[in-house]
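Shipment paperwork, digital attachment
Item: protein structure file
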Amino acid sequence: PSTLVENGWEATDHFPNFNAGEKWLYFTAAPLQNKEGKVIGAVETLQDVTSQKKYEMKLEFQASHDALSGLANRNLLTDRLNQSIAHATRDKSLLALLFIDLDNFKTVNDTLGHNIGDELIQETAKKIQSVIRTGDTVARFGGDEFVVLLFSPENKGYVSDVAERISKEVSTCYSHEDQIIKIGSSIGIAMFPEDGNSTQTLLLNADRAMYRAKHSNKGSYVFFK
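Attachment content:
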């Protein structure tokens, strides 16, 4: 975007197709006048600010994404959920929030080590992302907890289908000293607007539903009631 400054003009723009790779360039331009004050040309400067721009983008990404999985973090999820509630309120559409907790994750960490646990988190992140649409959001909420925000799902049937596919994708097994460790997921689901009309309420109710799924039938999904 360009900006008018005193006696001149400045802009920063992105050029993706340079032979040496993408560049971010900063331009300035100021009028060149003769003795009578007539504009007879312009004085321009050009500066390569690619390194600075990439560093700024890296800091922005780190502030809004989880370092281990690369997913949205809690702050970014909250922002997107706030925006989605505003859109859904205006359009009278649905939202679904799926709170996902891995079953037996502590056993993996305790028996196989935290490196395997970290790999499981990364692999789970990819598996969940493979199920949802581009416009939806997957976030790591902390530890072995993930949250999926489904924007404007058609109905509860569609949400159930997504939950079933996530359960199927995430399910896996580890073998350790003749012991089989089964990994699955318990999922709690809250719907907007029937289960809450605020970010805090929807997250709380989805979390409550997840704990009900974990304690009543581990590996299942449950809608909030």
